[in-house]
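Quick one: structure tokens for this chain, please?
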Amino acid sequence: MLGSGAMVTLFSALASALVIRRGLGGDWAAVALPDVVWLNTAVLAASGLAVERRRWGTAALLGAVFLAGQALAWRSFGATLASGPAAAFFYVLTGVHGVHVLGGVAALLANWRRATPGSVAAVRIYWHTLGGLWMVVLCLLLWARS
């Protein structure tokens, strides 16, 4: 629970930074999101369903597919960190989220091997928090490109 709270706080700070930076205007150049982010969103949602059914291995596999899809999104993005603040926020938000997903995949795999009542609850909360944060990240990135 504490880890999820810290994660929400981190993403709140990043979201605030994006909103403030975009409001400054100037060198803000909108960027198009790679189409694969929509598929990645569906994969992450499916992994949440797998968690609810206690299919830890399936959820972990889908989490890994999400990460592979995010790597593909980065490769097809067409911008670099130096392309401007909008592109930099894309990389920072999706990268920080990806690191947390990687940790979540590790927790899912650990639960697959040996779940306890406490770990089941903690992993469910963590994984669903990641899914919710992804929706916030996606909405922010969509807003930032307008």
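The longest helix spans residues 85-113.
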